[in-house]
Amino acid sequence: MIVRPKTTWFRMLFVWHGSVLHRVLAPLLVNFLLGLLAVWGSTHASHFFPHLNPVPFSLIGVALAIFVSFRNNACYARYWEARTLWGSMKNQARDLARFAITVTDLPKDDPQVARALNLVAAFVYALKHQLRDSDPRDSLARLLDGELVEDILRRDCRPQYILECLQQQLVAWCRQGRYGDILLESGLRKLDTLNAVLGGCERIRGTPLPYAYDVLLHRTTYFYCALLPFGLIGSIGLATPLISVFIAYAFLAWHAIASELEDPFGDEPNDLALASLSVDTERALRQAVDARDMPPRLLPDLDFRLR
After folding, report:
1. Which residues form a coiled coil (predicted)?
2. What is the average per-residue pLDDT within 3-27?
3. Which tens digit of pLDDT belongs to each residue from 135-165?
4. In the chain, % of residues over pLDDT 70
5. What is the pLDDT of residue 127?
6. What is the Cα–Cα distance from 57 to 42, expressed in whole angstroms?
7. More confident residue, 198 or 12
């Protein structure tokens, strides 16, 4: 995720990192060369180069813009839902910490409370690593004992097994007489919310937009941008390369941004900062028990990128 302070309008024109310009630079260069070819052909070999009517390009451009906006909105909806799910998970983690501290009548430094909160933090890290297809061993080993870590790593859905361990802890407290069935049900509902977050993230991660949409938009956009200089040359002349590149940049950049937002859990510049969100959730859990050994908060790098 790109996190940078507000800058002036002039500097914003030259921003590189996070602007997806590097992804569309090659096709923009091709479009510019086609614009130069159209200018040369109209002045030196007009009988070989057809002069296309610009009216169809206007109609196609409007239809293409609507379709690009539809796909962009669909991808941004996935991104926003993913951010909402992770925000809900942080809230539920805080609720579980408050539940473990106040309802059980255990001191904040009790090993049972520490284990329960470590399981909640482990759930967050395990989900992050599952969504990014990375190894959670180091994150889990820092929070849990070695035998439990190995038990978790043997599972296909590791966050789900951590929820089972959390539920066993809540049930054990109820059987110890620390609270009754009503409060147990309240605690289990918080686990249900975490399970809903897990399912929602898996649905977004495992169900991309229909492939036919991507293929159709890709083909239509690139063919439109390739033919655009030959439709503009008759009306704007020498300005064709610049105007054609500007229009192509708008369509190609929309396409590139939508491709990044389609999978908001990846490691691209405009994806969610899952590592930072995980650390912030763990810090919130440790602050609930007045812990001193908290992980350092993650900050953006020199490219204003927060991972």
Report:
1. none
2. 79
3. 999 999 999 998 999 999 999 999 999 999 9
4. 97
5. 96
6. 18
7. 198
In DSSP terms, which residues pair with 305 in a beta bridge?
Answer: 2
Q: What are phi and psi of 2, to 5 degrees?
A: -85, 120
Residue 195, exposed/middle/buried by CB under 10 A (0-12, 13-18, 19+)? middle
Segment 31-78, tens digit of pLDDT: 999 989 888 888 776 666 666 777 777 888 888 888 888 888 989 999
**305 phi, psi to nearest 5 deg:** -105, 125
Distance CA 32, CA 36 (A): 6
Contact between residue 37 and residue 244 where contact means Cβ atoms under 8 Å apart: no
Distance from the Cα of residue 270 to its chain's centroid: 7
Q: Give the integer Cα–Cα distance in Å for 272 and 122.
A: 19
Structure tokens at 127: 């989900």
Is residue 145 within a helix (H) or strand (E), and if so which, with residue range? none
pTM of this structure: 0.89
Beta carbons within 10 angstroms of residue 249's beta carbon: 18
d(CA 122, CA 159): 8
The pLDDT assigned to 48 comes to: 65
Helix (H, G, I), strand (E, B) or coil at 188: helix
**The residue type at 26:** A
* Structure confidence at residue 304 (pLDDT): 76
215 Cβ contact list (under 8 Å, min separation 6): none
Q: Is residue 127 within 8 Å of 207, Cβ to Cβ?
A: no
CA distances from 77 to 116, 208, 223, 264 (A): 33, 12, 27, 10
Cβ atoms within 10 Å of 241's Cβ, excluding its own: 21
Task: State the Cα–Cα distance between residues 154 and 137, nearest whole angstrom.
Answer: 11
- How far apart CA 169 and CA 163 sit, in angstroms, is 10
